[in-house]
Write a structure and sequence with these properties.
By secondary structure, this protein is an alpha+beta fold. The protein contains 12 helices and 10 strands. The protein has a 6-stranded mixed β-barrel with strand order 2-3-8-5-7-6.
Length: about 375
């Protein structure tokens, strides 16, 4: 009976391919769009992960996410260092400053200032130069995307390619000279602005003069110290907000989920993919069943039970669902691979395979249910009518 079910399904190539394409489209949309969504959300906290070293981030209690800069007084650093359980605490500057390029244009950059003595919180990977070179006069390190993209020097010819920044090139940050001493690899950020690293003292010198310039205090706990207990102690002692790395990432991601239209936009895309896939697959599968009612009636007249016919329809649904799901997921993986060197955010965790798999399963159940109801109500006598 299974062989007969498959012969019936594949006998009409047009409808068979129509069901497959409908499920492929649904699977593709329900996998690709969430993958872009997850990629965008991961970029919102990429800076936190790139810093890496600290166990705890200390900041103004009104900060809502990592780019919501509310500076502190420099004296807060020493108050944090005085809290029991803190092994070390270092200053970290983070701000948006305009860089003046060699052709006179301006580009907003994300400037990171590291502790002058330890340089803790530097870029995760150096491509050229060394982190210690920041101690040179006016030294800065530029991320590779910025160096080859928005901060690149103009092409020498009219339609030529821009010339990437290299060690020894200069920029102007707030009318102050900055010399490139290294190129680094960083994780792309949500704002996709060039990232420039320098020392803390030089960063606050580049920044416009304000009474408060300290953005974060990054803290390393002593060995064996309970991080949640230490964050609570820092809050009580200093009156500042303190989060573990995981809590700060969660705070940032939650802000973007609640205060931007990103979830709604991608949610609508996924819902439309699901509905269109269900409509195409359900309608095509139902029409296929209608055209094969006589065959089902013959089987019923020959003694096939409703349970047997039910298994045949479910086998057909499982086959088209598996093929459509596999093709959709495969196209998503191919899309992600082709976009790996572009600015597009794309992240494909295994949970998305489960998500789209459940979606395709629901579509197939809906399509099979329409057919099952028709077949169960079928009278075998139909084969004897004209």
């Amino acid at each position: 009976m299974n062989h007969i079910a498959l012969k019936m399904l594949m006998g009409d190539r047009g409808k068979y391919l129509g069901i497959i394409m409908g499920l492929t489209f649904a699977s593709l949309i329900m996998t690709q769009q969430p993958a872009i969504f997850v990629g965008i959300l991961s970029r919102t906290s990429s800076f936190i992960l790139d810093v890496g070293y600290p166990d705890i981030w200390v900041m103004d209690e009104k900060v809502q996410f990592v780019d919501d800069v509310k500076p502190l007084q420099d004296t807060e650093l020493y108050r944090v260092r005085g809290v029991a359980g803190v092994q070390w605490a270092m200053p970290l500057y983070k701000g948006m400053l305009k860089a003046r390029l060699s052709n006179g244009t301006f580009q907003t950059c994300n400037v990171i200032g590291l502790d002058d003595a330890t340089l803790i919180g530097g870029p995760p990977m150096m491509l050229t130069g060394k982190l210690e070179d920041l101690r040179r006069s006016d030294g800065v390190i530029v991320d590779i995307d910025g160096a080859t993209g928005k901060l690149a020097k103009p092409a020498l010819e009219k339609d030529g390619k821009p010339i990437p920044l290299k060690i020894g090139d200069t920029l102007e940050l707030n009318d102050k000279r900055a010399i490139v001493v290294g190129i680094a690899k960083t994780t792309k950020t949500f704002q996709s602005q060039p990232v420039i690293y320098t020392t803390y003292s030089r960063a606050v010198g580049f920044a416009p003069r304000e009474r408060k310039l300290l953005t974060f205090v990054i803290v390393k706990a002593k060995a064996g110290e309970n991080l949640h207990a230490l964050t609570k102690r820092i809050k009580e002692t200093t009156g500042l907000a303190a989060y573990t790395q995981e809590e700060f990432i969660e705070l940032t991601v939650t802000y973007f989920l609640k205060n931007t239209g990103i979830p709604i936009n991608f949610g609508i895309s996924v819902l439309l993919g699901f509905l269109v896939g269900a409509a195409i697959a359900g309608q095509t599968f139902y029409n296929f069943t209608l055209e094969n009612l006589r065959q089902f009636a013959v089987l019923k007249a020959m003694g096939a039970s409703n349970g047997t016919l039910l298994r045949m329809i479910l086998l057909q649904a499982v086959l088209v669902g598996s093929v459509g799901y596999g093709m959709g997921v495969g196209l998503t993986a191919l899309f992600g691979y082709s976009m790996r060197n572009t600015i597009l955010a794309f992240k494909f965790p295994w949970q998305l395979l489960v998500f789209s798999g459940v979606g395709v399963t629901l579509i197939c159940m809906f399509a099979a249910l329409l057919s099952i109801i028709k077949v169960i109500r079928l009278e075998p006598a139909i084969v004897f009518k004209g």
